[in-house]
Amino acid sequence: MQIITAPMAGITDYSFRKILYEFSPDIIFTEMVDVNALKYSNQRTQDEILRKAGNEAVQIFGNKNEDFLEAVKLLIERGFDHIDINLGCPVKKIIRAGKGSALLLESDFVKELLLKLKKEFRNDIKLSMKIRTGYKNFSDPEYYVKLAEEYGLFQICIHGRTQEQLYSGQADWNIIKKMKQKHKNVKIIGNGDLTDLKTIKEKTDSAKPDGIMLARGLLGNPWLLKEAKDYFKTGVFHESEVGREEIKNTLIKHINYCIEDKGEIRANLDMRKHIFWYLKEFENIEKIKNDIIKTKTIKDVLKYIVNNV
User: Fold this and answer.
1) Burial class (CB in 10 A: 0-12, 13-18, 19+), 148
2) Mind listing the pLDDT tens digit for each residue in 165-206?
3) What separation in angstroms does the CA of 300 have from each of 252, 259, 268, 307?
């Protein structure tokens, strides 16, 4: 069973990926990348989002074939060899631009895109795709599973929600199960609601995908990777108890990685959400939050965590 970490905008940056690598998932994605940012050589995209901590995969989104082709060429030049096409992002500003899940309605466009990418880069990349189960009048995820088989994609990841659901309600893993039962030759990755080991066991025991993609469950809890990996390896269900000191030390390491990558000012802004995710189960979290909110610099935050958490 493959374990993959999802591309999460503003979250899976270089520093967080360095933390994730310590838990050895099979595939780690960078943040999702707009093909236009690559086309116009956006410096932040080039220097931050695509800074490699290892052998990451990249997920790209757009709405023009030529932009996708140019983006893939640039990514290959930067040393990436696994590129994923996003047909799953449900965010409204992405949808309004005709990207992400909006492409589910454009079946001919996607088919032509895959044909061009396979023809142009057949031996250079592992090509994959991520979808949602529906958008507006589209409700046939099997169409894209068949495309994945027809064009020999490396894998297809199915998030068991429609675009309209965003992240509300429950992901429909019965669709993932049905797709795997009907298309045994396609590597199908399941995604949605995998926030703890109990749910991971329940969903994978039933649907039997080839792998899982973890996203929100990793926020402040990269140890979920180890729990899932151990379960798939041994078949023994064991939720680990991570000690306070281990959480604290991992958080400190993450902050220092972020300072190394972005400098103190940016790290002070970007790490706040991660800090509260790591410490969310601490019994005195409200006091910790209030104290950290009052700090002015990331060095002040580090000093507080070392001495008071």
Assistant:
1) buried
2) 999 999 999 999 999 999 999 999 999 999 999 999 999 999
3) 12, 13, 10, 11
Residue 22 CB-half CA count within 13 A? 13
Residue appearing with tokens 């590129």? 83
What's the rounded Cα separation, in Å, for the pair 250 and 180? 37
- CB-based contacts of 281, cutoff 8 Å, min separation 6: none
Where do the structural domains in the chain lie, given as residue ranges? 2-234, 244-308
Was 59 annotated as part of a binding site? yes
Please, how many CA atoms are within 13 Å of residue 139, restricted to the half-sphere of its CB?
4
- Is 9 marked as binding a ligand? yes
For the domain made up of 2-234, the CATH class stated in words is alpha beta
Q: What is the rounded distance in angstroms from the CA atom of residue 146 to the CA atom of residue 133? A: 14
pLDDT tens sequence across 136-164: 999 999 999 999 999 999 999 999 999 99
Q: CA–CA separation, 82 vs 29, rounded Å?
A: 9
The phi and psi torsions of 10 (rounded to 5 degrees) equal: 75, 5
Has 271 been labeled as part of a binding site?
no
CATH number for domain 244-308, candidates 2.40.50, 1.10.8, 1.10.1200, 2.50.20: 1.10.1200
* Active centre residues (catalytic): 89
* b/e sequence 117-144, b meaning 16+ C-beta within 10 Å: beeebeeebebbbbbbbbbeebeebeeb
Phi, psi of 299 (to 5 degrees): -65, -35
pTM, rounded to two decimals: 0.96
* Confidence bin at 46 (pLDDT 50/70/90): confident
The reply to whether 229 sits in an annotated binding site is no
Residue 159 counted as an annotated binding residue:
yes
